[in-house]
Specification:
Helix content: 40-55%
Strand order of the largest sheet: 2-1-3-4-5
CATH class: Alpha Beta
CATH superfamily: Response regulator
CATH topology: Rossmann fold
Radius of gyration: 15 Å
Order of helices and strands: HEHEHEHHEHEH
Number of domains: 1
CATH architecture: 3-Layer(aba) Sandwich
Structural class: alpha/beta
Length: about 150
């Protein structure tokens, strides 16, 4: 796997986290990234009842999102069959308002400002560029779950 994703024993053990529960879906056509993201989340949130699912394409991911109604989606942009921006657009325009409000972190190699702006304007909750540091992904996940639990979230 290319890049230093910063996943070490020390990189994840020092984050203090409240009790979290919910569903997360990881959508990426790179099985190494899916495995890395899932293992990073499971390692950090091992005492939390989080259900984590994965899909290897945009269409499969969209189907999984509709079936599982997750609290968070971690979504790549560059994928076969349907890119992540199109998946994001379909989620944000879904008639099911709960689904349309799902938190979505874009996790992608696309770092050009046009793509970042397009994702944010289409409704991405957050945007993270690969290679990423475990602490950065975990802190964003933590924030999204905390925001969801707050009275105004």
């Amino acid at each position: 796997m290319e890049g230093d994703y910063g996943v070490t024993e020390n990189s994840v053990k020092n984050l203090k986290l409240p009790f979290l529960r919910g569903k997360i879906i990881v959508i990426d056509d790179d099985p190494d990234i899916v495995s890395l993201v899932i293992s990073t989340i499971r390692k950090q949130f091992k005492d939390h009842p989080l259900e984590i699912y994965a899909a290897d394409s945009g269409l499969a991911g969209l189907e999984l999102i509709r079936r599982e109604q997750p609290d968070l989606v971690i979504l790549d942009i560059v994928m076969r069959d349907m890119d992540g921006i199109k998946v994001l657009e379909k989620i944000r325009t879904d008639p099911d308002k709960r689904l349309a409000r799902t938190a979505i972190i874009m996790l992608t190699v696309k770092r050009d400002i046009e793509t970042v702006i397009q994702a944010i304007h289409t409704g991405a909750t957050d945007y993270l560029v690969k290679p990423f540091k475990a602490e950065e992904l975990l802190s964003r996940i933590r924030k999204l779950f905390l925001d969801k639990r707050s009275p105004s979230g």
